[in-house]
Amino acid sequence: MLLHVDGLGIHLAGKPVVRDLGFQLDAGELLVVLGPNGAGKSTLLKGLAGEHKIADGQVSFAGCTLQHWSKREIAKRRAVMPQRVEVNFPLTVEEIVRLGRPVEPLSQSMPVVSELMDLLDVAHLRYRLAPGLSGGEQQRVQLARVLAQVWDAQGPVLLLLDECTSALDPAHQQQVFSLLRRLAKQRGFAVLAVAHDLNLAARFADRLLLLHHGQCYISGKPFEVLSETVLAAVYGLSARIIKLEEGYPLVVPRDDGPEAVYASPSLSPSPSNTAPVNPSCRQAS
């Protein structure tokens, strides 16, 4: 396994946000983290990225705990895209993507920069200033920068992506997740992506990790996680699941009226504010 998380706990302002979380991620695998707002998805990613202090448990990358990796060495193998990246300086698209290759001379970095701008469909924006781009364009530019950091890395690579397609149109969402899946399968990247789009996750993910109140509610293949019972319990969502011929599930919300939304008893506040932990969350699926 490339990434191993065991009993992870992260506190913010003295309060536990992620609790007793365990999972693993192998090279060549795309794991999508799902969950309602406030479930702890971004907090988890920031903990894995080193932005939040780990209060409990242990995280290992390529056989060593995160604490044993120097910032320089792990930056060669772990690239992170946060949920929001604001660029207010008059930098061009090309200059932003080149930020992922800071120690290389221009002659060496430009082939990688050009390749990634083509892959993310931003080559035509090469000389545009970042503040004038649309939200979706800026998101694709930032993803190109993140990928530039580890594009030709020697050894294991971990991508941590927080809602990297939230501002994209449907075509570009498909394009980006298709690229992430190819990077996993063809280059052996380990990709952990936080997302809200259940059908996008079902289409491309090898496994899903569903968080609820900072804990793992269930983990497994898309068909194992995206069931009517689970969606009602975690999201309060009334939906039916269609098994597509393509081999992945499609979530279709039911029109049960507004009174059905958040009607699940499991979403009612409880003294412990905890979620049941499925044993599969402790195992590789």
SSE layout and pairings?
Blueprint: E1 3-12, E2 15-25, E3 30-34, H1 41-48, E4 56-61, E5 64-65, H2 71-75, E6 78-81, H3 93-98, H4 106-119, H5 135-150, E7 158-162, H6 170-187, E8 190-194, H7 198-204, E9 207-212, E10 215-220, H8 222-225, H9 228-235, E11 239-243, E12 249-253
Parallel strand pairs: 3-8, 3-9, 6-7, 7-8
Antiparallel strand pairs: 1-2, 1-4, 4-5, 9-10, 11-12
Helix pairs in contact: 4-5
Ranges where pLDDT stays below 50 over 5 or more residues in a row are 258-275
Name the CATH architecture of the largest domain: 3-Layer(aba) Sandwich
Mean pLDDT: 90
The tally of beta strands, per DSSP, is: 12
Q: Ends: how far apart?
A: 12 Å
CATH class of the largest domain: Alpha Beta
The total of helices stands at: 9
- CATH homologous superfamily heading of the largest domain: P-loop containing nucleotide triphosphate hydrolases
Structural class: alpha/beta
What report would you give on this structure?
The protein is α/β, with parallel strands linked by helices and 285 residues long. It folds into two domains: 3-77 and 153-276, Rossmann fold, CATH 3.40.50; 88-152, no CATH class. Helices cover 30% and strands 25% of the residues. It is built from nine helices and twelve strands. The protein has helices spanning 41-48, 71-75, 93-98, 106-119, 135-150, 170-187, 198-204, 222-225, 228-235, and strands at residues 3-12, 15-25, 30-34, 56-61, 64-65, 78-81, 158-162, 190-194, 207-212, 215-220, 239-243, 249-253. It has a six-stranded mixed sheet with strand order 6-7-8-3-9-10, sandwiched between helices. A four-stranded antiparallel sheet has the order 2-1-4-5, with helices on one face. A hairpin with a 2-residue loop joins strand 4 (56-61) and strand 5. Helix 4 crosses helix 5 (135-150). It is globular, with a radius of gyration of 19 Å. Residues 258-275 have low confidence and may be disordered.
